[in-house]
Structures are given as structure tokens and as C-alpha cells.
């Protein structure tokens, strides 16, 4: 499959996930770039961050805002502090080997998954 088709598939999958669940960058784009496009961990992370620049979320955020589902002051504060946090994280990541970074990412996703499944199970029971 040509590279542009892989990128289109990644974009559609992550866009749907972003619209449905508010995720897409780290949870969809990074693993997809690694396993479908052959990117290194660092290249996938950097590319994912470039994808997440403001134009990507505008349409979905506007739709949620239109339906009264956006806390604007919270979003602004989180965006400002996320800017600083992303810079700190990128600086730290540049000092970690690719395999170690991938391991850390995998552990993060697994822990997050367990937390989400446990919380959902508790609310169902």
C-alpha cells in the first residue's frame, strides 16, 4: 500500500476516534505510524504532535461547543499548561532511547486501559 493511503487511513481512524472519544494523537496516530508506516518512536511522536496543531480539532470542538459540551475556561487553561508540558516532555523524550520510549508508551496505554475498564465496570455493577 502506498504511503499516502496509509496516512489517509491513519487520519480517518484517528479522526473518528477523536470525534467519538476525544483521543487520536497518542493512542491512534503514534502506534499506527510505527506499525503501519514504519516510523521510529521519536518520528511517530513528533509527527503526531505536528498533526495535533490547532486546525485539526476545530471542527469537532465547535460541534461539542455548539451542543454546550465545552468548558472554555478549562480548555484555555489546559491548553496553556499543555503547551509547557509538551515542551518538557519533548525535551525528556529526546534523552530516552526509542525502545525505552516505546516501552514507556505501551505501559502508559495498558495502565490507562485497565483504569478505564475498571471504572466502567464499577459503574455498571
Automatic annotation (TrEMBL):
GO cellular component, one term: plasma membrane
Transmembrane segments: 6-36, 43-62, 74-94, 101-121
A Pfam family that the UniProt record links to this protein: TauE
Keyword line: Cell membrane, Membrane, Transmembrane, Transmembrane helix
Membrane association type: Multi-pass membrane protein
Subcellular location: Cell membrane; Membrane
Keyword Signal: no
The organism's place on the tree of life at top rank: Bacteria
Family: Belongs to the 4-toluene sulfonate uptake permease (TSUP) (TC 2.A.102) family.
Name of protein: Probable membrane transporter protein
Organism: Pseudomonas knackmussii (strain DSM 6978 / CCUG 54928 / LMG 23759 / B13)
Amino acid at each position: 500500500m502506498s504511503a499516502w493511503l496509509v496516512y489517509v487511513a491513519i487520519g480517518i481512524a484517528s479522526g473518528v476516534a477523536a470525534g467519538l472519544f476525544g483521543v487520536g494523537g497518542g493512542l491512534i496516530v503514534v502506534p499506527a505510524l510505527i506499525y503501519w508506516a514504519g516510523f521510529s518512536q521519536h518520528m511517530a511522536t513528533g509527527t503526531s504532535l505536528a498533526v495535533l496543531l490547532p486546525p485539526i480539532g476545530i471542527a469537532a470542538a465547535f460541534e461539542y461547543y455548539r451542543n454546550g459540551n465545552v468548558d472554555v475556561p478549562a480548555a484555555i487553561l489546559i491548553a496553556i499548561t499543555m503547551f509547557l508540558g509538551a515542551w518538557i516532555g519533548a525535551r525528556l523524550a529526546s534523552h530516552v532511547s526509542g525502545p525505552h520510549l516505546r516501552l514507556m508508551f505501551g505501559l502508559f496505554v495498558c495502565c490507562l486501559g485497565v483504569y478505564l475498564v475498571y471504572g466502567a465496570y464499577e459503574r455498571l455493577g
